[in-house]
Amino acid sequence: MGERLAPSARIIVTVAFLIGLGILLFDPFSWDHISGTLKLIAGGLGVVLLASLGAMLLGRGEMPEEEFRRIHERSELMSQMPPGQEQPSEFEELVIEAIDELPPEFHEVLADVPIVISRLGEEVGAYGLYVGDTVARDNYRDHIVIYEDTLQRDFGWDPNLLRAQIVRTVRHEVAHHLGWDEQGVRDLGL
To answer: Whole-structure pTM over 0.90, yes or no?
Structure first.
């Protein structure tokens, strides 16, 4: 049972037990005090039950491993930023992660391609947009736009789904940069 209780509940149970034990030791049992002893036992059980109920309602008090990893990676990223630079939002971090997950060859191809986050997706009616003339030609300045507003609107209710759609959108737009047309990108499953 101790492993199922949160640390704060364990402390409460331990303190209640020690107080009850102290009262019994300093006020030895007698038949005259039977009602007081029963009240003490009932009170101790009540404290234990309340602590157990509180622990169940509050959960185990532990953070899921995935959430801990995400917070840890965010702290590491923020610690590497120069002082005074604005910290990336959680959405921006998801886009950064999606880019980082691409194979190294794609990082080389994207080295000079800005990836911009915009809130004008509803106006355009898209999750992302590639602007340019592909990696094969270099007549125009290429860039990729990821639309935060439409992605948040359609997938923001589920963090895992939002992350998956951001990854898909980034890959979709990178595929356009590499030369695939819309049908070719869809054939890739993007």
So the answer is: no
